[in-house]
Amino acid sequence: MNRPDAPSPPPAPAAVDWAAVRADFPLLTREVNGKPLVYLDSANTGQKPRAVIEAVDDFYRRHNANVSRAVHTLGSEATERYEATRAALARHLNVRADELVLTSGTTFAINLVAYSWALPRLKPGDAILLTRMEHHANIVPWQLVAERTGATIKVAEITPQGTLDLDALFAAMTPEVRLLGVTHVSNVLGTINPVREICREARRRGIVTVVDGSQALPHMPVDIAAIGCDFYALTGHKMCGPTGTGALWARREHLAAMPPFLGGGEMIKEVRFEGTVFNDPPHRFEAGTPNIAGHIGLGVAVEYLAALGMERVAAREAELLAHLTEELGRIEGLRIFGTAPEKAAVVSFLVEGAHAHDLATLLDLEGVAVRSGHHCAHPLMQFYGVPATCRASLAFYNTHAEIEAFVAAMQKVRKLLL
Ligand code: PMP
Fold first, then answer.
1. How many domains does the chain have?
2. With a 6 A CB cut-off, is 282 part of the ligand 1 pocket?
3. Which atom of ligand 1 is closest in space to residue 185's alpha carbon?
4. How far apart are CA 70 and CA 17, in angstroms?
5. Do both 36 and 59 map to the same domain?
6. 119-151 residue pLDDT tens
7. Euclidean distance between CA atoms 309 and 178, whole angstroms
8. CA of 43 to the centre of ligand 1 (A)
9. Residues 70 and 24 grouped into a single domain
């Protein structure tokens, strides 16, 4: 019965017209090898919506100037737009803008932590804890630091299903561990790691946490404040933004205590030959002229994703992933690497008797772009005892029809190879 005094229910979130969203991405209309492109390599780099492409174009056509130095109109327009990205990222990630250092991507962000936080602090006897499923960008910088400080690297193992063995991870958080590097989402397995719980346990033991968010931000809402980590690294090009963009979020007390990583313009208050007074964070860590146009594009990308709503993106991709997993399950001899219950839309696989590169090459002839190789995760390949896998990675702009086209191409290619 309708009660006139009953509060009206909250309005249902507007349904997204995913076909219209797809039409925002000009590249997706092209053909490859005479076939409509089926782009399944978004974990490698995402495609860009028109708004992002136009923002970059507009910057060079109308506003091009360097940031921070010039007082003329173009200089302030460039600075305003560049700083608007920091603000947009801060809103999107629920952090303060002055805790975000804009970088060329995750690789730079993690190296910044390695050289600026870890290198001056670690010493022989200390340990850095990493997980088996880290990307090389969250392994090699720590090896370089370990070599120079005498610290050692410890590894937390995974289960065959491709999830972190949490008991083993917590047991590995021994007193000598100073820092933990953990990926939010695996770029190979798609596994979504419970970073909130992991960071809470690490914090209880005084371990500083570095979360690699490269593969999380394209797929789901991320609230960095709620995660409770010390550092969170992200890359722009996987989240609809231009290449060479990204950021490091860090707790203010860390940024305040960290010496600069690179020296040069922009990061100083006063330079004398006797000594230099450095700028305050985050500018202290942004030496030289940055990728201004790229970062302005990233700001637009973030607004684009925020307007779509990351919950809706996650729900859309969950549907696509379920479809893809089911269809691939019908292919004889196909093995999926990574079957975690909490999984982003990334599927690594091999077909018995076929090389990953051969599969990817033949799929390309069918217009299907998948990645083959080690995915910058050698230790993970070593765990599974394979040199490479094929990886189909989805974004919200993919369609069910593309999944069907991909699976039909797989069936054809499999026959050719076996
Ligand atoms: N970490 C993960 C999990 C990644 O997938 C990638 C990109 N392949 C990176 C780090 C490195 O990102 P970038 O090259 O943009 O710095």
1. 2
2. no
3. 3
4. 43
5. no
6. 999 999 999 999 999 999 999 999 999 999 999
7. 36
8. 9
9. no
